[in-house]
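Predict the 3D structure for this chain.
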Amino acid sequence: MLRKIGFGLAMLLILSGVSLAGDEVTLQGQFVWNTTSGEEVTGDLKAIFTPTGEDAWDLAFHFEWEVEAKVYSGSVHGSLSEGALEGEVNDGGEGDNKHTYRIRGSFKDGEFAGVHTILSNDDGPRDLGTLTLQPVD
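Done. Predicted structure below.
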């Protein structure tokens, strides 16, 4: 009987959208992207972190590039309040059009400062610029 109640409660939580591992975290900030032509492109950045385990997160970056909405997604590990955070995201392309980026940096007092590096580049990895994120008010 207790097993059925526990199963029923777990199903109710799952169907109601409650995460047993915790809630997603949304941060907003800016990106700086240094193009190969030397141009510095800046823009607004929204990051949605969905917990997948202890200090493990699925990450979705939402931003605009050349007036087109983009979402780069992947996974990262680390704290979202203090210390290091690192992982990889990709642009959703396929084959030769798929690009993977390393995200690394650290949180201090709940704010993130880091860099993004393209990994899938013919010339090898290349640092592209910076990322800053803060909690949403």
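Residues 21-135 form a domain with the Lipocalin fold (CATH 2.40.128.20).
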